[in-house]
Structure formats: structure tokens, C-alpha cells
């Protein structure tokens, strides 16, 4: 009756797509540690440590800084569902898949959404937002700091000032941002922010680190209606993650261990060094790609170091290159999503995966596959260019 | 600036509470296997295997059988949010914490909820439901099969017939049920069901196995309004877990490995044997507890083998016993929740944790701590009684 199912034996991959990125070996070990109860004193202490580390990584003193028991998209829903009451006006900035997702989530939460759009790969300026803020007068503005679908790096600080000058709250998607680029929740006055574990934190997907400012919590605690999601209701989660430790739902113990260890790794390295490492490896990759004529699809000056969205050269078979990378070399890169389907590759250098070995690996593999498809370039040029970047940095 | 956070070093526990239960060593190993991408052919194959095993464990052919990327409470919300449109009438049966939670979740989804109540520890009969169904004529009826707060085992089959005779859909909470007691999704005509990984599946918390019948999916696909949760929208999840494999959110890869391995363990043992093992260890525990005068708080004939809710003997210090069990012997049992606070202990024998060694361990530890608190009983009687049950079973 029962069919036999094979033992788990995942192939060894080098994850250089838009996430998940490679999990750090110490994080894998943390995952496999013995489960304790969700109200065990040791677990509560682990939660405390996790929260304190998360505050350091988010650069915030927000008491309501914690991990939502779901992936980054659950974090998005937690932020939107808690800040929005039915009928509330919200502006959402859309320049890729994840801004679009936020519109959908906000509408389901009953928000009256005004969407501002920029072409894929570009970012928003204060001038784009000002007239819309002026006419809409929203309660909340949502924006994506690191658009995983386009590799665009959205500056937040000036936009935050503008948004607050209109007495709105600012919600930021930092799924791909956290750990990869500088991010200052308090200094930039971000009211609510969410991220994922599977990008620059070198941890498997499954949790969403979030933080809510006192102003955001004031809005949450003074709601006239219940948050539509019981599971994501921050006013209840505050009782579990706060001092009271009142049981809400059973915490995902082993994933919490993993995130704890992932945050330790970031803080051991130091945030600034971690960001500098992401920047350097990106610079090397970019030099390599450009040396063989591959161009970025993202607006100049706003390219994320951890997610390199590049144009597929003309005449090159997208699916074949990605298939060959995976099947022949065990390397995963990302396909284009939505408007970028078939046009763009997304090469991740995230967390543990942002290192010189991976830069050389992807460049040498790409050179080989492009050569096989008749692409014209000087063999070895990408490796030489990347290496020069590292040599100059070491001087 | 950065404080140092200690290395993870969880104490070794024996988890005999209401869940999480002890994670099986093979499941811990599965958790630590290398992360692959969420669209990797290997991961898709693993999802297929997981779904097929889950169908076997749920005893269903439902195509929409999968794991929600959140804990059991996210599964509850997924079931309710998808089946309910604002204004829909729903009857919820409440005889403990989790029925109460379902009321809250359903009201947040916009349901017009009629609550039927039974005292804690008791279960519902067809006669309890019939008049309410007659007067309310609901679209959906929700009921908890294994009330984790009371240890009550709710029969489902006859109630399902009644519910369907009124053309309503039946939603069942099987968080603590799945793997511990017989459960027949198809034969009993259950329309939507959710469970947790951290009870009788010997897996850490973090995922919620769910299944939706064709009738439930028809209701979902013919909704006039969007499901209020984007994250839990089964019409979109069907495109990822179904044949199309359209990206929705990033799957929790390593937790999926863990559930895959946990389901393999259940099927290797065989479902019937697994249920029989839970029944036998419960019988031994019960014989032991009763031999020293400890009584169950649950209605006779409806006691869950995997969750033993017993009355704390008069004069015994609840918190001290639980504290001593944890701190001196490394054993976790559950406190009473809500109406049972300070009155009841909840002793779990779930999954991997349901074994003779754990029965003897908890009985000997309890005997010692009760004796220290001056409780009058014959030392060794519980061990002898439990052992007799095993000897008789072996004959």
C-alpha cells in the first residue's frame, strides 16, 4: 500500500540567485540542535538574545523587534495588516514584483491604495512622492528598499523625512536589504520594517525579522478594529515577545536557533565590515561582467551589491545557460521575473555567499557557457578584471 | 559596541508536554542538510514526495494537500480565511482554547460566528449540533478533533454526516491528532483540515500540514472576494504546490526537509502500528497514574492517548512539580491553560516521545516529587502497573 519514499539527499548547490542564498555551516548546525519547549527558560533567553541582536542589525532600539513565524512575505503581511485599518489610505511605491505584492496585500487588508510607479530597475525620488503625498494624505507609505526582482537600491532617508512631514508612517521592505547594505531604522525614522532570513543573513527561509517603531505601535494599539490576521497580530505577539511571555502560538524553535546563529555571525564580523564585504565582491563581479560586455539592467548609482540584475546578451539562450549552470556546475542563479522574464539574470552575492570564490566561480562558468553559445569576448577577461579589483582593495 | 551573545547550547530535555514533542534524531539530521533553491528540481521533487506522504497520513486523495509555511495556528487561519467570505455563517464548537481561537480567527475573517460550547474536557455529540445547524444553516462548521488544552478526543465521523446533510463544509483542527489517532479525511468527508508538525510527527514546530477537499476548493475558487491573506491564499498556493509550480513565496526549504523525513518515519512504521503504539503507551501511563490515585480531567471514553490531561492532586504545588521536573530531571510537561490553570497537568506521549522509556521516566519522576510533597501513595505502584500493561500486551 505504502510506496517507499527516498531518503533525503539534496544535491550540493552554490546558491547565487535572488535567495535563498547558501546557508552558513554554523547555521545548519544550529538548526539541528535539540528542540526545547517554546516556554522553556532557555528558549525565552534565546528569544531575548535574538531580539537584541536583531536590534543591533536593524540599528534600532525598538522594543517590538522580533521574528514573525513565516517567510518574508508573512512579514510584509504582518506590517501591512497591523498598520492598516479598513479604509485607511496607503501609498505604495511599485517598481518591481515586491512593490506590486504590497499593493495586493494592502488591498486585501482594506486599504485604499494609491500606487506610484517607476519603470523596473529604477528608484523613487522625493519629487516622485511629494505631489502624491500632497493629494492623497495617506496614513501609511510603503516602499521596497532592495527590489529583489530588479536589483534596485532605493534610498530611504530623504523619502522618510518627506513622508513624516505629511504625518504618515513609513513601511519598508528590507527582505533583501538586511545585512547586505547599510540600513538605519532609528536614524532614518522607519516605522515598520520586515526582512527575510534567506538573503544576506545566510539562514534558510522560514522567518521574517520585523521591527515596529513606538509610533507604529501607537497606531497598532489604538486601532478601532482587530488586526485581520490573528496569527500576525502584533498586539498579541507583543505579549509573547515582550516581558509577559504570554503564550500566543508555538514558536518555530529550531528555525529560531538558526536565525540566532545567523545574527551572531553578522555581529561577529561587524555590520560595517559585512556591508564592505558585500560591496567589494559586487565591485569585483561587476568588473568581471563588464569586462566581457555584460551590462546591468538597473539604474546606474542604484545597483544593489547583493543582487546583480544583468541583461542577457543578445542571441544567448537564457534557459539553457541557467540549466547548464545548475546541472553541469551546481550553480543556481535567478531568472527574470515578470517584465524581466527572459531578459535578465539575477546573480546573488548574499551573506556567506558573498565571497571571492563565488565571484570567480560564476565568472568562469558564465565565460564557458557563453563561449559555447558563440558569444564573442576575450576569454579570461572577466577573471582578470575581478582579480584586479581584489588586488587594488588589498593595497 | 556589540555585546557578545553566547553560543547556542540548548539543554537536553525530554519534551512530554502538549508540544513541541521531542524531535526525532533523523528529523534533526534532515534539518541540517544543505539548502537548495525553492524552484530547484530536487526541491520540487521533495515537495511532491511530501505531498504524497501527507495524503497517505491524512488518508486522502485531495490534490490540495500541502504544508502551510507557518505553525498550526497559521494552518487554522489558512483554512478559515479561505473558506469564509465576509458575512458567511459559521458554527464553531468550543470546548477548550483552540475552539475559542477558531472563533476569533473566523470573526476576523468576517464570519458571522455562532459558538456552541461544551464544558472543558467534554466533547460534542450530533445532538448538540443538530438544533444549531437547523437554526443557523451555516456555510462552514469548525471543530477540534484533539483539543490540546483539555486532552479531549472528539469523534468526527457522525458529526461530518450531520454537517453535510445541512450542506455545510466541515473544517477540522487536527493539530494534535495527526499521527496519534486514526484520522480518515476522505472516508469521513472532511472538507478542510490542518495540523502541526510539532506533535505526533516528531518534527519541530514551523509548518502546518493542510488538506482541502474538492468541495472546499470549489468554494475557494468561486469566491467573490479575495482571500484576506495573500500569504495563505490557497488559490495562489495551488499554483505553487500544484503542477504549475508558479512562484508564490519562498518555501521554508529546511523545515520542508524535516517534515519530509518525519512523514517517512510515520509511513515506515505504518499508520496503524503508529496509532497502536500511541494507544499502548497511553494505556501504560494511565494505569501507572491511576495506580497512585491520579485521575484524568477528560470525559471518560474521550481521552486522547497522546495528550494526558490529569487533575493535580489536592495540596500539591503545581508550579513546584513542573519546575522540579524541568530543572532536576530535564522533563517538560504542560501546565493547564485557561480554565485549567493550576488544576491540570498535560502529559504528552507524542510521536517519537510515545515510548515505554518515557512512560517509566515520567512516572518515576512524578512519584519522587509527589512523595517529597507529602502525597500519600504506595511507592513503585505506578511503575508496576505500567509494566503490567506492557507485559500483557506482549503476551
TrEMBL record, chains A, B:
Keyword Transcription found: no
Family assignment from sequence similarity: Belongs to the class-V pyridoxal-phosphate-dependent aminotransferase family.
GO molecular function, one term: L-serine-pyruvate transaminase activity
InterPro entries: Aminotrans_V_dom, Aminotrans_V_PyrdxlP_BS, PyrdxlP-dep_Trfase, PyrdxlP-dep_Trfase_major, PyrdxlP-dep_Trfase_small, SP_NH2Trfase/AEP_transaminase
GO term, biological process aspect, one: glycine biosynthetic process, by transamination of glyoxylate
Protein name: Aminotransferase class V
Entry annotated with the keyword DNA damage: no
Residues bearing the modification N6-(pyridoxal phosphate)lysine: 199
Entry keyword set: Aminotransferase, Pyridoxal phosphate, Transferase
Aminotransferase class V domain: residues covered: 35-336
Cofactor(s) listed in the protein's UniProt record: pyridoxal 5'-phosphate
Amino acids binding substrate: 346
Amino acid at each position: 500500500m505504502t510506496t517507499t519514499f527516498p531518503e533525503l539527499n539534496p544535491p550540493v548547490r552554490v546558491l547565487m540567485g535572488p535567495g535563498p542564498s547558501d546557508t552558513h555551516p554554523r547555521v545548519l548546525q544550529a538548526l539541528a540542535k535539540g528542540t526545547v519547549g517554546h516556554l522553556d527558560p532557555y528558549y525565552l533567553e534565546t528569544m531575548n538574545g535574538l531580539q537584541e541582536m536583531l536590534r543591533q542589525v536593524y540599528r534600532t532600539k525598538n522594543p517590538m523587534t522580533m521574528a514573525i513565524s513565516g517567510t518574508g512575505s508573512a512579514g510584509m503581511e504582518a506590517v501591512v495588516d497591523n498598520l492598516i485599518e479598513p479604509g485607511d489610505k496607503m501609498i505604495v511605491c511599485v517598481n518591481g514584483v515586491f512593490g506590486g505584492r504590497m499593493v495586493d496585500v494592502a488591498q486585501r487588508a482594506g486599504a485604499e491604495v494609491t500606487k506610484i510607479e517607476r519603470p523596473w530597475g529604477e528608484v523613487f525620488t522625493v519629487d516622485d512622492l511629494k505631489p502624491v503625498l500632497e493629494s492623497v494624505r495617506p496614513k501609511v507609505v510603503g516602499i521596497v528598499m532592495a527590489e529583489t526582482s530588479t536589483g534596485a537600491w532605493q534610498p530611504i532617508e530623504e523619502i522618510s523625512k518627506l513622508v513624516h512631514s505629511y504625518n504618515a508612517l513609513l513601511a519598508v521592505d528590507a527582505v533583501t536589504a538586511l545585512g547586505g547594505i547599510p540600513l538605519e531604522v532609528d536614524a532614518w525614522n522607519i516605522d515598520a520594517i520586515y526582512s527575510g532570513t534567506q538573503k544576506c543573513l545566510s539562514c534558510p527561509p522560514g522567518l521574517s525579522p520585523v521591527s515596529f517603531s513606538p509610533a507604529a505601535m501607537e497606531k497598532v494599539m489604538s486601532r478601532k478594529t482587530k488586526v485581520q490576521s490573528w496569527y500576525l497580530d502584533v498586539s498579541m505577539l507583543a505579549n509573547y515577545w515582550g516581558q509577559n511571555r504570554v503564550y500566543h502560538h508555538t514558536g518555530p524553535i529550531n528555525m529560531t536557533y538558526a536565525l540566532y546563529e545567523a545574527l551572531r555571525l553578522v555581529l561577529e564580523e561587524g555590520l560595517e565590515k559585512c556591508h564592505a564585504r558585500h560591496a567589494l565582491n559586487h565591485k569585483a563581479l561587476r568588473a568581471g561582467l563588464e569586462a566581457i560586455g555584460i551590462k546591468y539592467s538597473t539604474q546606474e548609482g542604484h545597483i544593489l551589491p547583493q543582487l546583480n540584475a544583468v541583461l542577457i546578451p543578445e542571441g544567448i539562450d537564457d534557459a539553457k545557460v541557467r540549466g547548464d549552470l545548475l546541472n553541469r556546475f551546481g550553480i543556481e542563479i535567478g531568472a527574470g521575473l515578470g517584465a524581466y522574464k527572459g531578459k535578465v539574470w539575477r546573480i546573488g552575492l548574499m551573506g556567506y555567499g558573498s565571497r571571492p570564490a563565488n565571484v570567480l566561480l560564476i565568472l568562469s562558468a558564465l565565460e564557458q557557457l557563453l563561449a559555447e553559445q558563440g558569444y564573442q569576448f576575450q576569454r579570461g577577461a572577466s577573471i582578470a578584471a575581478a582579480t584586479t579589483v581584489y588586488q587594488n582593495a588589498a593595497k
